[in-house]
């Protein structure tokens, strides 16, 4: 049953749809400013800091079962947008995608991850999971005024950069394909492998994956820079068969570093590429300056983290 919640005037009305159909009905029924709430952890900090005004309507997504859970559908991992970060961090299926797993563990404190959702982290446009999702070529499924629509995360971020997003769209699920990666979704026991290491996997492909985050202090802080790297090497000729690199962090919009990917793939995979990788990333990564760090500091940090990660992977 769809029921408005408390208050009027200064207090927003609260709506709690139980199905996607009820959510659609509410969207058509209510007028005025509205805000869709997942875990609400980021929204609370924005309201307290007066960065965002209170809407006339709050629409909670917590009671819609179709938006929660992690499952295998064909050759994809599907994550409901309302899945708590705590659940994402402990789910064995997501351990097959170590970059995303590491990114989730780096978000805030455990108490925050108990409430915060992966969908809220993504929908913020600046979440720490976004570089990992870019590297894994994830797709986002949205409920829009035109019905269900799918967008690659890279295109969605580009639209955000160009102010082409519709705030009334609701993220329903995240789809991560395994077909583009040496990942087996059919085995009963997931292969557990760590980031920042080179692994031999059944398809005779060596894999290097790592995620790194630089914050203003050691733990539980907003990021200054986040980077993600995934590469696969043919052991027969030692050349890269696949590379994906992304960087973001802070209030900046994450992006794939395609020029750096092409440069790295043009040479034989080796630890000697680390210094050149750092320089290429510094030149390509577009960031910003704020009260905490300059753009050049963020650019150099991204380059150094990626270069160091590649060097360590070859020497581990």
UniProtKB/TrEMBL annotation:
One of its GO terms (molecular function) is FAD binding. Keywords: FAD, Flavoprotein, Oxidoreductase. Residues 6-181 form the FAD-binding PCMH-type domain. The keyword Protein biosynthesis does not apply. InterPro entries: CO_DH_flav_C, CO_DH_flav_C_dom_sf, Diverse_Substr_Oxidored, FAD-bd_PCMH, FAD-bd_PCMH-like_sf, FAD-bd_PCMH_sub2, Mopterin_DH_FAD-bd. This is FAD-binding PCMH-type domain-containing protein. It comes from Paenibacillus amylolyticus.
């Amino acid at each position: 049953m769809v029921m408005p919640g408390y208050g009027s005037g200064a207090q927003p009305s609260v709506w709690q749809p139980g199905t996607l159909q009820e959510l659609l009905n509410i969207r058509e029924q209510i007028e005025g400013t509205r805000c869709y709430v997942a875990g609400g952890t980021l929204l609370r900090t924005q309201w307290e800091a007066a960065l965002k005004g209170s809407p006339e309507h709050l629409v909670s997504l917590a009671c819609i079962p179709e938006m929660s859970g992690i499952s295998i559908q064909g050759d994809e991992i599907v994550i409901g947008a309302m899945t708590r970060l705590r659940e994402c961090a402990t789910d064995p299926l997501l351990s097959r995608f170590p970059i995303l797993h590491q990114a989730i563990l780096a978000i805030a404190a455990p108490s925050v991850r108990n409430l915060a959702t992966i969908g809220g982290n993504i929908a913020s446009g600046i979440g720490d999971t976004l570089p990992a999702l870019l590297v894994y070529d994830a797709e986002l499924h949205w409920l829009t005024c035109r019905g269900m629509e799918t967008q690659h995360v890279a295109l969605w971020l580009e639209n955000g950069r160009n102010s082409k997003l519709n705030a009334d769209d609701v993220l329903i699920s995240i789809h991560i394909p395994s077909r583009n990666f040496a990942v087996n979704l059919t085995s009963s026991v997931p292969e557990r492998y760590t980031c920042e290491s080179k692994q031999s996997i059944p398809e005779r492909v060596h894999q290097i994956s790592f995620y790194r985050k630089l914050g203003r202090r050691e733990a539980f802080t907003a990021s200054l820079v986040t980077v993600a790297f995934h590469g696969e090497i043919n052991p027969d000729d030692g050349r890269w068969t696949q590379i994906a690199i992304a960087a973001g962090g802070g209030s900046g919009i994450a992006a794939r570093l395609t020029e750096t990917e092409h440069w790295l793939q043009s040479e034989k995979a080796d630890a000697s590429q680390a210094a050149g990788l750092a320089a290429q990333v510094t030149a390509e990564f577009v960031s910003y300056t704020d009260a905490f760090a300059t753009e050049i500091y963020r650019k150099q940090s991204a380059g150094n983290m990626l270069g160091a990660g590649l060097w360590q992977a070859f020497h581990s």
